[in-house]
Amino acid sequence: MGMANKIPGVSGGIIALAAGFYEELIYSFSRFDGQAFNALRKQGFTAFYRHVNGRFLLFLFSGVGISFFSISLLLDVVLQTHPKQVMGGFLGMILASVYFIGKKEEKFQASHAINLTLGILFGFLLLWINPGTENDHWLFVFFCGMISITGMTLPGLSGSLLILILGNYNLLLVDSVNGLFFTLTDMVQGNGLGLADEERRRLLGVFVFFTIGSAFGLVVFSKLLNYLMKHYRRKLISLLMGFIIGSLGAVWPWTHKTLQENDQLNTMLTTQHSTFYLPKEWSSTTTSILIFIFLGALLVTLLEYYGTKKRT
Fold first, then answer.
1. Contacts of 233 (CB under 8 A, 6+ apart)
2. Where does the chain have alpha helices with state H?
3. What's the pLDDT score for residue 107?
4. Which end is more exposed in the chain, N or C (fewer Cβ atoms within 10 Å of the end residue's Cβ)?
């Protein structure tokens, strides 16, 4: 999920939905309420930990955290050296996710088709919005944090793509994360926090407000989704499937504007205004892309098999 959340157009929530733990994810997030903090105050951390499904969240955020920092450092290099293959892998994951999600929903009504269509149109529309300009004002960074968390809570609606559209992808998901990483590295090496550097201080401040906004958005969105999942589950799932299908264009590996041709990361990671096509001639690149599509689909298939086996 951490890796998927960093790629514009790809939603970490897709992994949760395909692997069968999406409802537990939303349920756990929604448990951060007044009752949880009353339990912490009156009964201690153990009661709070049980109330919020702490074991599940501990493993989840440990994996997301490790992937978040590692991908932030490697993302630029990997996408420049093997961009089409990487996107092919995510394409395979999304296609397999749509199949397994649809397979689980047996009853499909006309109203669900409308939600599905709306989701597809909205997901596709996002690909054609020009990115804004970078803005490090704390209120805007806080807002971006709220928006970014949608990639974890809403499968198919990529939080990182929304941040890219807002113009703050570099600042929030690359520069500020790397700033925190280098600060922690300085601490471990006994070199202090590096706060004498004005740019380091700015990036750490950005990271703090971004994190606070993400936490706030996580609680708000999860409570809303938990309610919708209980009362309008099939309609919500059909809408989410539409988001997922609509996001396919963001990871389509065959475009006339290749990812390697762009210098800026904000431009490199978006396929806006590209011409999508199918390869007319077979090549080694086409072979490698198809292999990665297969591997991506295989990964989701294995996650689905593991989730099904665990539930039974």
1. none
2. 2-6, 12-19, 22-30, 34-43, 45-51, 54-81, 83-104, 110-126, 138-148, 150-153, 159-166, 169, 176-188, 198-231, 233-246, 265-268, 284-311
3. 64
4. C
Q: Which two tokens stand for residue 68?
A: 């978040």
> 276 phi and psi, to 5 degrees?
-90, 140
Residue 110: its pLDDT value, please?
65
Check if the beta carbon of residue 92 is closer than 8 Å to that of residue 288: no
pTM (2 decimals)? 0.60
CA distance 108 to 98: 14
CA–CA dist 166, 172 (Å, integer)? 11
Tokens of 234: 């099939």
Spatial separation of the C-alpha atoms in residues 194 and 198, rounded to whole Å:
9
Please check whether residue 237 is in contact with residue 231, taking contact to mean a CB–CB distance below 8 angstroms.
Answer: no
Q: Please give the Cα distance from 126 to 158 (Å, whole number).
A: 10
Neighbouring C-beta atoms of residue 163, cutoff 10 Å: 26
Half-sphere exposure of residue 279: CA atoms within 13 angstroms, side-chain side? 14
DSSP secondary structure letters along 195-260: TTSHHHHHHHHHHHHHHHHHHHHHHHHHHHHHHHHHHSHHHHHHHHHHHHHHGGGGG-S-BSS-GG
Q: Is 283 in a helix, a strand, or coil?
A: coil
Q: Of all residues in the chain, what percent carry a pLDDT higher than 90?
A: 3
Q: What does residue 255 show for φ and ψ, rounded to 5 degrees?
A: -135, 155
Confidence category of residue 275, pLDDT binned at 50, 70, 90: low
Instruction: Please provide the size of the chain in residues.
Output: 312
Can you tell me which residue has the tokens 């599905």?
116
- Which positions ≥6 away from 134 have C-beta within 8 Å? 167, 168, 170, 171
